[in-house]
Amino acid sequence: MKHVARKRFGQHFLTDGRVIDAIVAAIAPQPGDDMVEIGPGLAALTQPLVERLGSLTVVELDRDLAARLREHPLLRVVESDVLKVDFSALAQQVGRGGAPAAGLRVVGNLPYNISTPILFHLLDHVAVVRDQLFMLQKEVIDRMVAKPATSDYSRLSVMLQWRYSMDNVLFVPPESFDPPPRVDSAVVRMVPLAEPPDIDLKLYGELVQVAFSQRRKILRNTLGKWLETRGFASEFDLQRRAEEVPVSEYVSLAQSIQP
Hints:
Blueprint: E1 13-14, H1 17-27, E2 35-38, H2 46-53, E3 56-60, H3 63-70, E4 75-79, H4 87-94, E5 104-109, H5 115-123, E6 129-137, H6 138-144, H7 155-161, E7 164-172, E8 177-178, E9 185-192, H8 201-211, H9 223-228, H10 247-257
Parallel strand pairs: 2-3, 2-5, 3-4, 5-6
Antiparallel strand pairs: 1-8, 6-9, 7-9
Helix pairs in contact: 8-10
């Protein structure tokens, strides 16, 4: 029986064979890689991946799709909302004889309606991740990889670039899906930095959120007041807008005020 895409799960199933081949080539799965696919859906990516890997763990929320996937002998199915999955614990379970020595590889066509929460959720588990390759709404990826002083540079840029090296690897048009989404899509590769700066992530997240809360205003009117409450007395140019400050400066600022 044909599965009907469910709007509440943000389902758009990839059907373009050329795009599928290009994504698999970008992932470059190798036998023995410890890989997790988020939102496998109708297994368009799942099947070519598992053929190359030998085994694959998938996270699927849709009960009917999860039941279908369980019929595949080489798949380990986690039926769950991905935002509730403890990827650090999953790495221990997926890894052969413990946590993967090379780190977990996480891939998938992410539900566009919750893509940003998923990215932030995975940021909490980045220590066990080797790399991530996701299909997302193109405008989201544009923000992820944006440079300072551009219109796309945003809270998302600053929250991810301190921890990942990222690049946009593939454009995917709406007609590659069934049903086609109303937006363009793209594929992003995210590789955790080998030597990331030492910061308090909760504090950093709060700082960045305050900075971009009113992005048209200069930081003296937003971040300046937040810094005053923390007794910040060092130099930082608050006569700029949030989008003009490089990631490195946000990181240094967070380091200077953390306990």
